[in-house]
Amino acid sequence: MADRHHPHRRRAPPGHRCRGRPVNAPGRGAAARRGRDRRARTLLPAPGAPRLSGDRTVSTAVVGGGIAGLAAATALAERGVRVTLYEREAVLGGRLAGWPTVLADGSTATMSRGFHAFFRQYYNLRGLLRRTDPGLERLRGLPDYPLRHADGAHDSFRHVPRTPPWSALGFVALSPTFTLRDLARMNPVAALPLLDVRVPGVYTRLDDVSAHDFLESIRFPPAAHHLAFEVFSRSFFADPRHLSAAEMVLMFHIYFLGSAEGLLFDVPDEPFPASLWDPLARYLTGHGVDLRTDTPVTSVDPTADGGFVVAADGGEQRHDTVVLALDAAGLRSLVERSPRLADAAWRERIARLRSAPPFLVSRLWLDRPLDAARPGFLGTSGYGSLDNVSVLDRWEGEAARWVSRTAGSVVELHAYALPEDAARDVEQKRLVEQLHRVYPESRAATVVDERHEWRADCPLFPVGGYADRPTVRTSDPGLVVAGDLVRTELPVALMERAATSGFLAANALLERFGVRGQTLWTVPDRGRGAVLRTLAGLG
Predict the structure, then answer these.
(1) pTM of the complete model
(2) How far is 423 from 421, CA to CA, in rounded Å?
(3) Structure confidence by residue, pLDDT tens digits, 374-416
(4) Dist CA 525 CA 315 (whole Å)
(5) Cα separation of 434 and 508, whole Å?
């Protein structure tokens, strides 16, 4: 599958210096690693040596062991940098971590912070996973992305064409939430920004508008508004009224209107540690990475010779460079305790970072199976705070083995953007009540055991907040930032933004050392088709 040359050249986004011009894919293997979209973009790193020379020693501290930190550590260690990775938790993976728990029946299970969809557009995250799973055999594709509203409306992406604009036209044609009357009521001019999304232009145009208000201006049918678009916008763990429309429109471009990968996705076939992070930890250790889990960093201070002293549980250590790969709260806290990092303007911006509202993940081990026709994943709307339901034993080996022993089922419920003062016991009970509405046969089941995870550490992308978000580079060339909160000025989001920013952070440091970094891919960085782009320009 050869990559097509695009008729325009794009400049490298501020904050990194990857070459943004398209290139021909150098063979079938590279095309397969990228994906099926022939218009996917290649970002070449700055030229340099393949790795550090044998007589040169450079050390980097990576603070944070989530996706961003692991990506940065991987790219650096592969090129000869001596990496020490600090992670405050006892396990790697960040918001995709998992840990053992003993159930009431005596069996051991792995608990996590919940279901995550690995979309085929996640080129750079999937490239990270290929380090230990070249064929991505530990990912399993789910056959559909079904959505259900409490009033009976439903949608599906299984039969929707994958290539724009046929994806959008096919969705409208196949969706029962769109009627001819609904189409006549819509405001097509307001929808034009969806047709040609470019970064950072989309933020200039829409960052001061909320996702809710943008969708209201288009006058989508109420059922489609609540069922499809609100479900998508809430995947940012925020109420659409408080989410930047630019972030949501970029998401539509990535997953639907700008990419030919489609909206179906993969999931790990075992819990996150076994399928993803334990193999990667072995890989990193094999490349000399010093993995220090259960080791919170208390401060990072620059030294007179251009390095940094990292203070952590167990003592202090000097490093030549530092990657900060933390969530918003962790980054704010560390920078507050490190008053000499970078410059005052940067520290003030970090202090203004906000976290999204709390969310709840409830996992239930039930004593009987759900209907065999239930999908592995279902997005929901109109069921109170319930945002989706996962039946883990449909794809996860550990859950399936528990079910084979007990004839039960393992179900997970998500509630995003809960009130700050929500009563935990009340919300947990409400989620179970909504499960009974969605899958009535669950009413007869007894809960063998249950686990509830309450978290509030996802980044918030508020209306008008884009300019305040940190970039990969800082005023100190030895200090870089990574994570899904980072402004990359590339068409990436969520887990893929975390992985991409981690590689970009590594590339920024490798460029200083004269070493060639990681080649990256993204979905197309502008609307597909001259006609659609022309229409978008009329809006």
Answers:
(1) 0.91
(2) 6
(3) 999 999 988 999 999 999 999 999 999 999 999 999 999 999 9
(4) 45
(5) 47
